[in-house]
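To: structure subgroup
Subject: Chain for Friday's discussion

All,

I'm putting the inputs and outputs inline so they're searchable in the archive.
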Amino acid sequence: MTAPARLTPWLLVTLSLLAAGCRQRMADQPYYRPLDQTDFYTDGRSARPLERGVIHRGQFLETDALVTGLTTEEWGRAYAQAKASAEAASADAKRNGGKGDAKSPAVNTEDREIAIGSPRFDPPGFDAARFGGTPHPGPQVYVNEFPFPITKDDLARGQERFTIYCAVCHGPLGNGQGKIWERGYLTPTSFHTEKVGAHEVDARNPPDVPLGFSRGYGLWGIKIPMRDVPVGYYYEVITKGFGGMPSYSAQIPPADRWRIIAYVRVLQMSQHATPDLAGKPGGGGKP
């Protein structure tokens, strides 16, 4: 056997080891755990901040009603309020030699005026006097229309999600008498202003809140049945929670929250439909 022939196996082994080493280094990339320090960047941070203006392809804008339930007008008012607060804080800082309070409000107004996304105004066209409420003319805070067309499949999905997440407290009929309530939990809100179950008992509602009326609106002195509140209000309660009800933002995706609300509207319509709805899409029901 010649010398080159004897060297060929050793050469192959050497090349294989080199190739394996290169592959291993490429496969095991250096990485950092969240908030780990690094000396690679001058600021010492391994987690790099996003460039200004970057929007994830799956990210919704905060003004999108699909993920907030708030109207464009309400967001415009919120931005105007934030700008006024920032300008007032800047002016206060200048008057005090740069030691102003950046969190100070722009003007000393009532909470009703500075609150963002709160049920402080009646929906347009709602007859507040009919329920003993006081009208508060102003911008529409919550959207009163669904952000996408509701189909039969959406309603079926909404019923399924309602049964999983909501019926345990609000009951399958939406009357606030689910299994959790039977075991001594706080009384959930009913979506109806009348009893709808054959064995429904008198619920322990908060003082001055009639059956089926919104408790959130009631905090602002507005008496309004749950069937008349904007759908955006339902969305906010599901997202953020209210009273004894926790937030369901982690369990229920935004689109499914709207489907649940659509099914709640169906439950309400089944008990409060009027003759003029007969023959219309989604109409019928009892007169």
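Points worth raising on Friday:
The two ends are 104 Å apart (CA to CA).
Confidence is low (pLDDT under 50) at residues 102-109, 281-287.

D.
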